[in-house]
Structures are given as structure tokens and as C-alpha cells.
Design a protein that fits this description.
Blueprint lengths: L18 E9 L2 E12 L5 E11 L2 E14 L2 E13 L5 E8 L4 E6 L2 E6 L9 H11 L7 E5 L2 E5 L1 E11 L2 E12 L4 E8 L6 E8 L2 E10 L1
Antiparallel strand pairs: 1-2, 1-15, 2-3, 3-4, 4-5, 5-6, 6-7, 7-8, 9-10, 11-12, 12-13, 13-14, 14-15
Length: about 220
């Protein structure tokens, strides 16, 4: 049974505490922009994660804003609406929109000229809420389970590996972190996350590697 969004107030995850992080974006060691991530609770008891980035590198500029509104039912995160707006100098602006109907276990979405309807299963997340689920398992010292991500009309199966503890440099000094890796074998892409061990497992560094080369690294400056 899926509870109402208002009941989410009674179902508190360890990871559900509001935060705001600002990042420096690096590419091959060069400062190419800024990014930010926020988690806020809405007046109706639902939650929202937002992620913004503004990158400029030579002739390329890229601005993005992602938001995910979600609720909590028992031990589950239930995405409600995910949206991503992209403005890129070499491409036309795009909008990705996904609406999750948990009462009917159906998702409807659109991206460019494509539209889709697909069945939902409890446990499906979007790209932003998956980070909250990883944090929750790290904070409660539970193994990180595989996570199925709904993305552009398909389901991606993500598996995570805890690499170990590392000390990284941030805008607030050296921080002890847990390093977690997502290895997307079918796409020859890796994403490394560093979560602050002494600060609610906040994601203080994120690195994207594609075909063996670093695409970008986000390093937290303040939170």
C-alpha cells in the first residue's frame, strides 16, 4: 500500500535532512564552471532535490537544471516528477520530463519528440533520488543494493561498489570520505562518488569517466 505524501512526514530516512552544496567543476584540472545541489522539504511533506550546473570550456557552454520531487513510503523512495532542462551551445535546448503515478504503477515521460508510457515497480528511482538512496545505506551501514533507474523510457540497472575510505581536498579543507563507484559496463562509463563520513554522507565530490578519460569532476566548496 502506498501512503499519501503527507504520511511521508512520519517516515524519516536518516539521509533526509535539508542541505545545500556548491561545487567547483573541473576538467583535466581546469576550472570550467560551477554546480550546486540542494535537498529541501516542501510544505506538503514531500521532498525535492535540485541540481544545477553552468559550464564553459573553450567554445562549449552547457547549462543544466534537474529537479526531482519525491515522497517516502516506509523504506521506499517514490519519485513523483523528474525534470531536466538543458541549454548547450552545440545542440538545441532540450527538456526531459517524467511523471510517476504510483497508484496505477505507470510512468509517463517525454524527451524531444519522443513520448512513452511504461510500467513502474517499487524501487525504481531517477538519477537524482538514487544518490539519496546510496547515502541512506551508507549512513545506516547497510550494503548498497542494485538500483534500477528510469531514464528516457528505459530502465538502467546500476550496481555500486564501495571502494574504501579516502581523504580529499575541498573548499572546506581535507575531508574523510567513503568512495563509491558506479561502473556502467555496457556504456563504458564510470561515476565515482565521495561521501563525507563526518557530515551526513553528503556527496562532496563526484567524478565522471567515459572511455577511460575524465569528463568532469565536481569538488565541493561549501555546504
Amino acid at each position: 500500500m502506498i501512503t499519501s505524501p503527507l504520511a511521508a512526514e512520519e517516515q524519516q530516512f536518516s539521509a533526509l535532512k535539508p542541505y545545500s552544496i556548491t561545487y567547483e567543476v573541473l576538467h583535466e584540472g581546469d576550472d570550467v564552471g560551477t554546480a550546486s545541489r540542494q535537498l529541501t522539504q516542501l510544505s506538503n511533506g514531500q521532498w525535492q532535490i535540485s541540481m544545477e550546473s553552468d559550464i564553459s570550456y573553450y567554445f562549449l557552454s552547457d547549462k543544466r537544471r534537474e529537479t526531482s520531487r519525491f515522497m517516502i513510503d516506509a523504506e521506499h523512495i517514490l519519485p513523483l516528477v523528474y525534470q531536466r532542462l538543458s541549454e548547450t551551445s552545440l545542440r538545441s535546448d532540450t527538456t526531459l520530463l517524467q511523471n510517476f503515478d504510483w497508484s496505477n504503477l505507470t510512468e509517463q515521460g517525454s524527451y524531444k519528440d519522443a513520448k512513452w508510457t511504461q510500467p513502474l515497480k517499487i524501487g525504481y528511482l531517477d538519477q537524482l533520488t538514487q544518490v539519496t538512496m546510496i547515502r541512506e545505506h551508507l549512513m545506516t551501514q547497510k550494503p548498497i543494493p542494485p538500483i534500477d533507474i528510469s531514464y528516457r523510457g528505459s530502465i538502467r540497472h546500476h550496481e555500486f561498489k564501495v571502494i574504501g575510505e579516502e581523504i580529499i581536498k575541498t573548499g572546506k579543507g581535507d575531508i574523510r570520505t567513503a568512495k563509491v563507484q558506479l561502473n556502467e559496463k555496457d556504456r563504458d562509463r564510470k561515476t565515482n562518488f565521495w561521501f563525507a563520513l563526518e557530515d551526513n554522507m553528503l556527496p562532496v565530490q563526484v567524478q565522471r569517466i567515459k572511455e577511460g578519460e575524465e569528463q568532469a569532476k565536481l569538488v565541493a566548496q561549501d555546504w
